[in-house]
Write a structure and sequence with these properties.
241 residues, alpha/beta, 8 helices, 1-acylglycerol-3-phosphate O-acyltransferase activity
Length: 241
């Protein structure tokens, strides 16, 4: 069954991605003068990713909790990383943000082009310039009132194991004096483990927004903050088995 589901998903994806890119380009053309942050375009992509691609199979279920906790202003949203499907899962939050992603994704046809239109933030992992690539554009977005979303692990490990949190997201929050919002993603490995390739017919996923950590609680040490937030994830996920 997973072979059928995988073929069906990629059929849906490949036939609808060009439509999304075309609609997105037209929307940006007409809305950019009044929406330079591209919030409307981001909403369209969230809707497309969540309602169409993440619901391509009737056996895929996603539950969202705590959306009301997301701040309306600038913040650093951090998300644990288990699978490539985490990206589609967090789109269901329908919250404006600039997504930080590895630079290689921006070269992909259609998907990468759309990420460029959305003005998401590319970063070359392992590069000596990686920290500047992360901090400089993210600072600009935060100062414009736009949240940024970062996977602090940088990538995902086989089997959904949690990796150490890198300090970049937390340094950004400390320096810009904005809240850190932990978002916990569970169950995406039921759908797709790592990069796959095979998708399972059934998956039960959950995306939970935890209470934001206010700026005054962050301290001045990004490394200590990263460890503290990772410990929060460990406790939260362990409590759910």
């Amino acid at each position: 069954m997973k072979y059928v589901i995988t073929v069906w998903f990629w059929l849906v994806f490949l036939t609808t991605a060009p439509i999304l890119f075309t609609l997105g380009a037209l929307l940006l053309l007409f809305t950019y003068p009044v929406d330079k942050d591209r919030r409307m375009l981001h909403w369209l992509v969230c809707h497309w990713c969540h309602e169409l691609w993440l619901h391509a199979s009737p056996g895929w279920r996603t539950r969202f909790e705590g959306k009301e906790l997301l701040p309306s202003g600038p913040c650093v949203i951090v998300v644990n990383h288990q699978s490539a499907m985490d990206i589609l899962a967090v789109m269901g939050l329908y919250h404006p943000y600039k997504f930080v992603a590895k630079a290689s994704l921006f070269s992909l046809p259609l998907v990468g082009w759309m990420m460029t239109l959305l003005a998401y933030v590319p970063i070359v992992r392992g590069s000596s310039q990686a920290m500047h690539q992360l901090l400089d554009p993210c600072r600009r977005w935060l100062r414009r009132g736009m949240p940024v979303l970062i996977f602090p692990e940088g990538t995902y490990a086989k089997g959904g194991q949690r990796l150490p949190f890198k300090r970049g997201a937390f340094q950004l929050a400390v320096e810009e004096h904005v809240p850190v919002v932990p978002v916990v993603v569970e169950g995406t490995t039921e759908l797709l483990e790592g990069d796959g390739p095979w998708l399972n017919a059934r998956a039960s996923m959950r995306v939970r927004v935890l209470p934001p950590l206010p700026p005054e609680s962050l301290g001045q040490d990004p490394v200590e903050l990263a460890e503290r937030v990772r410990a929060l994830y460990e406790r939260t996920l362990s409590a759910n088995g």
